[in-house]
Amino acid sequence: MITVFGSINMDLIATTTRLPKPGETVAGQSFTTAAGGKGANQALAARRAGSTVRMAGAVGEDGFAEPALTLLKEAGVLLDTVRPVSDPTGTAIILVGGDGENMIAVVPGANGAVSAEDAEKSVGLLSERDILMMQMEVPADAMEAAFRLAKTQGTTTIFNTAPLTDDAIRLACLANIVVSNETEFELLVGRSGLSADERVSEMQQMAERSGQTLVVTLGADGVVAIHKGQILRATGLKIAPVDTVGAGDTFCGYLAASLDQGLDFASALRRAAVAGSLACLKAGAQPSIPTSDDVAGHL
Question: Cis peptide before 241, with omega less than 30 degrees from 0?
């Protein structure tokens, strides 16, 4: 089983011909709402990839709570460790430009009420055969409690460092597998403007020190990883992106599910990279997540 300990949001999405510059107003083209939150997105991706998944987190007692959980319920994600709280359901305000790139502001809401007690209730159900996946959209103390409990139980932990904060840098050392994009990895190691070779060198040094598996996603250039001392690379698909907002979460969910299902790490990377590419072909983080059959058809 995969347990995702993380955020649950409603995404409020507006499309524009291009993203505005600071202080600028641009005309919008369309508006829609969709279930989101990095935790929920990754949980749905892992479930659509074919794994048994439990979501742990919090929603408000408001009109956004039910639609935020609808696709998870329909997919069969276990929601017994999602609790209602008095704070409003988390929201993300997303602008998507004509080239598919996006700008996002996240309001934590109920996600900020997730606690160490929630970690004990959800992670306490796991064993050495399970996977725990987390991101940086719930409080750091709750995440640290989850990491430490998972370690005592021998549970494999996957940590997506988005959005990267000072707490993310501190918590990254507690995970077995760390997934970052290019920008996040540079912040993680404290160096900017890395070339491809420099990035791999930094990854190798970090992996040697920590014993961790490190994964860096590279957008259209695929993904590079250091796993058990080996440099592994995978590419996605050549596409014309419609919306990239769900690509990273889809990648993480499919990576976790592929490992849960027994794929070797190189095959898991390739499957996740293809899934991430397919997630760019539709609007919305959760509606865009492909099914296992969709991904298999493109591998």
Answer: no
**Mean pLDDT score across all residues of the chain:** 95
Q: Which residue has the tokens 């077995």?
A: 176
Q: What band does 104 get if pLDDT is binned at 50, 70 and 90?
A: confident
Query: Token pair of 221, please?
Result: 């250039």
Statement: residue 117 has pLDDT above 90: yes
**Using a CB cutoff of 8 Å and minimum separation of 24, what contacts does 208-211 make?**
210/173
Burial (CB count <10 Å: 0-12, 13-18, 19+), residue 97: middle
Which of 230, 101, 222, 215 lies closest to 161, judged by CA? 215
284 is in an annotated binding site: yes
Q: 9: which strand partners?
A: 36, 90
255 belongs to an annotated ligand binding site:
no
Phi, psi of 47 (to 5 degrees): -70, -45
- Looking at the annotation, which residues are catalytic? 249
Is 275 annotated among the ligand-binding residues? no
Dihedral Cα 216, 139, 111, 259, nearest 10 deg: 40
282 known member of a binding site? yes
Q: Dump strand ranges (E) for the chain.
A: 2-5, 9-16, 28-36, 53-60, 78-85, 90-96, 102-107, 131-134, 156-160, 177-181, 213-217, 223-227, 230-234
Contacts of 220 (CB under 8 A, 6+ apart): 236
Q: Which residue has the tokens 């050392």?
A: 173
pLDDT for position 59: 98
Q: What is the dihedral of CA 179, 184, 190, 195, to 10 degrees?
A: 90
Question: pTM above 0.90?
Answer: yes
Q: Are 224 and 245 in contact (CB under 8 A)?
A: no
Say whether 140 counts as a known binding-site residue. no
